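WARN  no MSA supplied for this record, continuing single-sequence
INFO  ligand: S-adenosylmethionine
INFO  echoing inputs
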Amino acid sequence: MTTRTQDGSVGDVAHGAIGSGHASFRRPDERIARFVAEALGDARKVLNVGAGAGSYESAARAVTAVEPSESMRARRPTGLTRAIDAVAEELPFADGEFDAAMTLFSVHQWSDVRTGLREMRRVTVGPVVILTCDPALVRDFWLYRYAPEVLDIEARRYPPVEELAAALGGAWTVQTVPVPLDCTDGFNEAYYGRPELLLDPAARQACSAWSFADDHARERFDRTLRRDLESGVWDEEFGHLRGRPTYEGSLVIVRATP
Ligand SMILES: C[S@@+](CC[C@H](N)C(=O)[O-])C[C@H]1O[C@@H](n2cnc3c(N)ncnc32)[C@H](O)[C@@H]1O
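INFO  complex generated
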């Protein structure tokens, strides 16, 4: 059984409490959108599970959105379809109803990933596309030096990609998605070459892992990163990232076909 918070959120994050700053820091990035579109292929009827405010939904497809959090549903722009209040683990659709299905930046929050993905497979005839982070790679990022707790939390929350693939069955691929230097979707690695931007608490708040970090961890992160930016220590070691057009980190697309 799924437990819901006051705004309907399930899983480990209360989206009503995270706040509306999310919308300005988590805008879909058009370069990442191309990878998602390619993975969906020519599918017309597409299911988006954990759809949030509708990032990466294309007007060129008939999208059905599922989103349990009322505050997230309310953030959907008027041009998009209204999201259905349901959870991945119990999808209110018939077998094979969709050409393709996607779930983006969401599986790490589900209470039962295996059941949720089996549901997605059940209702989809074509590809199921998951945009997520590979937990084996999340600590290979400079942020680990300054906020290890946050990336330890990320590494624990993200399901291993093999588990995702096994739950879906069939044939699957894992593709690294390069993160652009000016990425508009503010997950942690989006700031790989712009460390100063992560000093803004609102930017961090838009990444749910930070909501699990305590005040001590946040204060230490702020103090030590500021210090290393001022002294030039960060740039000595990581400054090459400021000019790198893309970063191949932990962001991946898992794509499974029956
Ligand atoms: C980080 S947001 C991502 C939203 C959107 N996909 C995007 O890329 O902007 C994760 C979303 O997954 C939803 N979610 C969490 N657990 C879920 C579940 N069990 N079933 C469906 N959606 C869930 C949350 O309510 C939240 O809106």
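The domain at 15-257 is CATH 3.40.50.150 (Rossmann fold).
INFO  checksum written, moving to next record
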